[in-house]
Amino acid sequence: MATEADLQIQVADYLRLRYPDVVFHSDFGSGVKLTMRQAAQQKRMNGGWRAFPDMFIAKPTLGFDKDGQPFYRHGLFIELKRDGVRILKKDGEYVADKHIREQAKMLEHLCRLGYVACFAVGFDQAKQIIDNYLK
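Above: the chain sequence. Below: its structure as tokens.
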């Protein structure tokens, strides 16, 4: 089964091929085991924020609210999960996994700041989210 790192590479390759002029950044440190010192350094470099999304696409786009009013979306954050990972329970609540709940809070925070921010489980869902955002 492909790892989350494999998925990030697959999505990065797709972006380079399909949208060569789009600037994006993928978090190389995602899923990497760090020493206590390295983890402390990374936390300080990231402003103390936990659960930062795996990928950012730095392309503002125009969106429309439910009343049809236009607004700018500042960019797209994606928290990538490999195929088969469950994010939500059947009732629509997030699973009990503490890290997924932290990631969901971060995504909600970024949405309030004017970004599109979401989970993507597997390559097909990530591709669909990217295509919908960039078109």
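The radius of gyration is 15 Å.
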